[in-house]
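[Q] Does anyone have a clean structure-token version of this?
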Amino acid sequence: MISHFKPSTVNIRLRTLRCYLKWLYSEGMTKEDISTKLKLVKVPKDTIHPLSPQEVKKIFKVLDLSNYADYRDFCIMLVMLETGVRVNEASNIMLSEVNQKVKLLTVRSETSKTREERHLPVLTKTMKYLERLITIAKSNGELHLFNSTLGGRVATMTIIKNFDKYGKRAGIEHRCTPHVFRHIMAVNSVKAGMDIFTLQKLLGHSNITTTRQYIQLSADDLISSHGKVNVISRFI
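[A] Here you go.
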């Protein structure tokens, strides 16, 4: 399998096989629990590099906000930068789940990856952009916030392809995907002082170890943060 699939894919299959072997042993169909002999393969650490603020601004500049698709994707980017919402969760947000008064978006348990409902606050500036989408959606009798130009909610794959298109149009050499925008949100939130537990809640991670993988600070960030703390000043 290693010669055909990514390590993470191999591990998914190994885990399934281990469960089956363990069940065989528990049912008395095998004399030995062979599942303990199946070891998972090593998975390379996530090497996603979030885009810089300058690169994000370059992408914004190539968007034609007079065009519905570009404007919709611009709003998706804003929501991701503020909340870290997953692309599939974003595409499934319904108009009824947007609370304009308290500026809150709700991700339903049915569409959440972890099957847990969570609430995502957005700033006034972002909500003002969303209000235009809401008006368009209501006038077209749509149920979702982010819709296709042909009607109905926009497909997840369409968003992914569009992000890649915008990145290339802006001359960005790194990957430009919705997942990268989740990383941008995570890194910049920590830089701004957000605690990791709040970040975990926003990103919708059931395990804080996963959240930690999203925070890849550069050497400059570490130096800056270390300098601000200045622990040694307490002693000399």
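[Q] Thanks! Anything notable?
[A] The chain has a mean pLDDT of 88.
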